Give the backbone structure.
Amino acid sequence: MLKKSLFILLGGLSFVLGTVGIFVPLLPTVPFYLLTAYLWLNSSDRLYNYFTQTRYYQTYV
């Protein structure tokens, strides 16, 4: 249960950093989105499905 919560929290943080990376030139977007997909895949099927259906993921990854 703690591992699942940690993966969800870290996935959310990497999603925010990836989204900020769209607007900030020195911050990469794709690695953060791939990390988000990995973390949310291992934590929750619902979050993973939500993330892979977002417009940002489908555009940039």
